[in-house]
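MOLECULE: protein
FOLLOWS: sequence and fold
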Amino acid sequence: MKYRTRTNYSESQKALMWERWQKGDSLQQIAQLFDRNHSTVQGILSRTGGIRPASRRRSRLALTLAEREEISRAVVTGQSIRSVARKLRRAPSTISRELQRNGGQQCYRASQADQMAWDRSCRPKSCKLVENRALAHIVADKLRLQWSPEQIAGWLKRTYPDDANSLVSHETIYRSLYIQARGALKKELLQHLKRPRVMRRSRHHTQKTDNHGRILDTVSISERPATVEDRAVPGHWEGDLLCGDRSSQIATLVERQTRYVMLVKVASKDSETVANALIKHARKLPQELYKSLTWDRGTEMADHKRFTLATDIKVYFCDPRNPWQRGTNENTNGLLRQYFPKGTDLSAHSQARLNAVARRLNERPRKTLNYETPAERFNQLVASTG
């Protein structure tokens, strides 16, 4: 049995993750930056409910590594605690405690003491709603009445204007709900929010423009010539992305008349990458055999105008939620699952491997072609155009 390897992210990768999440990117978009599955990103972000944890930093009053190294040298040379304190402009008690908690003068090591101090300093501040349980009960009661955290915070400010202990910000309420490690509010209270989610979203995520998620200047499949519909003329293709694990995908193309299949390796799902891959691949065929392409409404084809400008191939789009309008391609994708099962990483396959699979499929006899193969039919077209 093959086990998946654990996905580890560096601190810089996690920082980029949080930056993109706060800007409103989806889990899928963030995962594509690292060529990973979105679930690994969700695992990182969900630990704190989608709320970025505060960056840890040392107190300006704490001893620095340079000061600890000075203490270490002074101990080796036999200097007194008071002389070290004068040199560092610190209280003698500070130097004394530093030595006592880190092995004494005989065992003191600067780097080890500095790391131990950093580890000991990891003491998160207690949440106000944990310390003030009466206030927590008031907040919980208002949440059960479907009040929003902002409404609760505003009501408290108006009701108890002179009592700082009875005030709490809406951000603190959100953090208490989404970060369960705080132990202030029960997770069940999330269901009373207007939009109950497992993780808190960035406010930028909902700022949608009129064309958000839509492809501009599309040509509907209803405008496609009748000769394409009845398969009377060759050179009209249907396309889609076959998706796999770890945000991997393959562009699949099938010619409507001959059922001839071509597979194109694409590095990512963004429209620029897909368009570039399709443009490069289109130049391998005679123009007579590649006149149009019918796609669904996936945003990977948002760059369709540049594709048409570069190849002179018209692009038609299916109606929303009607994938059956490119049924030949849908059927072909089903056949391809024999070679590329769901849940496998498609990025592992080279273009040569994709060509070999396409050849295997094109050499299978098809009932709809009177048991001729797509390769035979397509090669006849190539010969006639040559």
Notes: Residues 128-205 form one domain.
